[in-house]
Structures are given as structure tokens and as C-alpha cells.
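Workshop exercise sheet. Pairs work together: one partner reads the sequence aloud, the other fills in the structure field after running the prediction. Swap roles for the next sheet.
Pair: D.N. / O.F.
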Amino acid sequence: MSAAAVSLGSSKPSLRLAGLGIGAAILLTLPLWSPSNYVTSVATLAIFFAVASTGLNVVYGYAGLLSFAQVGFWGLGAYVSALLVTDLGFSPWTAVICAGLVCVAAAIIGGLAALRVSRDAFVVVTLSFSLLLQLLARSWTSLTRGAMGIPGLAPPQVRFSGIVLLDGNSAGDFYWIALGSGALVIAATYWLLRSRIGRAFIAVNLDEHLARSQGISVFMHQLSAFALSALIGGLAGGLYVFKLGIVDPGIFDIYYTQMMLIIVIVGGAGHFWCVLLMSIVFTALPEFLRLAPELRMILFGIVLIITIQFMPQGLGGLIAERRSRMLRRTE
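Structure field:
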């Protein structure tokens, strides 16, 4: 390897640390220099999409299972959280945690049956799951209040020794609440994916038969990935509902499904950081361009076509391919 290559390799860690430091500083201070509450609210929405898309990336990008259930877990978490607060008097934080656990239970129960069929059938089962939840949200009026929804959801607070440190009623404070919660979930997910469990997910995705020959339980790891994605989606939806202040069947809208899918596909399934980057891009771009919902779908469709044509593995795949070429040239 040449001296230039060694120098380039040694500079990468410092560049990454500098980039992470600048990014963290921007995220932490955004409400302080944001020009308006609107910009802060868009940034908050980007955090929620980053978390929810990370859940989809776990099951699709790492375990290789295309799932349309992510929006179902997102909506289920929102309804569970809202119902626990309004009907049973739970605190918002307890309700969010319970929402995530309920989604895990639903994923395990459904996954035990859905994962015994082919991957193609699994896609249909997960799509049916989300559509069924939407139907229940509209029809089970005694529980969900139907199209009227469940309004009046007070945002959570962060207290210490009886002192309110962050009040969710403020756009800036809710941003910091979402940022702290999202960073915790994303960091834990990243650590898990870097562990033996994450490597087993990738092995199952690449070659199920080879994974079995190495003693890896394909079924259990696929079920674990599905449950983990449900936990992440449920936590994201359970907290997001307090940003809205109301939950109704619109929480299962196809828009959320399209957003999560395009973020993962364009970012590159299985590429952790690029998916997070695309969460910011695809949340902010339509908002700042002031596009109508119909035009957003057209924009997403054009971007998706371009990605499939020129970057079939997404942005992360393109970067990885170019990095491999550079390494081969320097050897």
C-alpha cells in the first residue's frame, strides 16, 4: 500500500470525528438559531422518520424481509399510547414504553405464523396487517372513536426534582425531547447491529442455507429482527402522537409507508448512516419546497426511478462500491 493511501487512511478517523462533532452541535443547538417554530417542527418530524425508518432498515436492510407492517406498528404504538394516557391515566413516558412492548408482542404473535411462509407471502401478510389495523381504527368506534380520533393529548415533560426542564408544549423543548429519545433508540439499535446479532441478521439475509450450516437459527433471527423493528416503530409512533396532539386513522396513511420505504431504498438498505441522512433530506425537501401532497408523491416517484436506474443499491451502496474501488487501486 502506498504512503499516500496510509496518510489518507489515518486522516479518516479525525475527519469522521470532526464531522460527527459538527453534526451533533448543529442538532443540539437547532432550536436556538432556528428562524421559526416551523423549521424546528420539520426537524422534529425528521427525527421521527429517522427512527421509524431505522426500524424498517433493520428488518428489510439487515434481515432481508420486506415489511409493510412498519406503518402498522407506527400507528398501533400511537393508538396504544393515546389510549393509555386518556383512558387509564398513564404518564406519557410510561405509555410510550408500553406502546413499544405491545408492538413487540403483536410482531411475535404475527411473525410466528407469517415467517413460516415464503418471503413473498410475508410481504402480503405484513401489508394485510397494516390494512387491518387501519380498518379497526375506523370501525372500532367504542375504543378508537373512529374518524373523530382521540384528541387532547398533552405533550410529555422532562422533570428533575420537581422542576420542569423541558415542556413539550414548546416547539423547541419537544424537539429536544424527540432528539434525546431518538438518539437513545438509534444508538442502541446501532450497537445491536454491530454485535453478533446484527452480523447474524446479515448472514441470514445473504444466504439462509449457509447461515443454517453455521448454526444460526434463521427463523429466530428473522423473528427477532421483525420484533425489533416493531419495537422501534411502536416507540416512534407512541411519542409522535403527542406532537400531533390527536390520533385518528390517518396515522396509518399510505404517505408514511411511502416515506419510510423511499428513505430506506434511496439511502441504501442495510446502510445505517445513509438511511438516517435520507430521513433528513426527504422530510425537509418537500416541506421547504412547499409541495402539495400529490406533488410530493410525484417527486418521490421520480427520485425512486432515478435511484433504481443509477444507484440500484442506494446511496450507501454507491459509496461502498466507490470506496472498494479506491482501496483496490491503492493496494
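Discussion prompt: The longest strand covers residues 163-167. What would you look at next?
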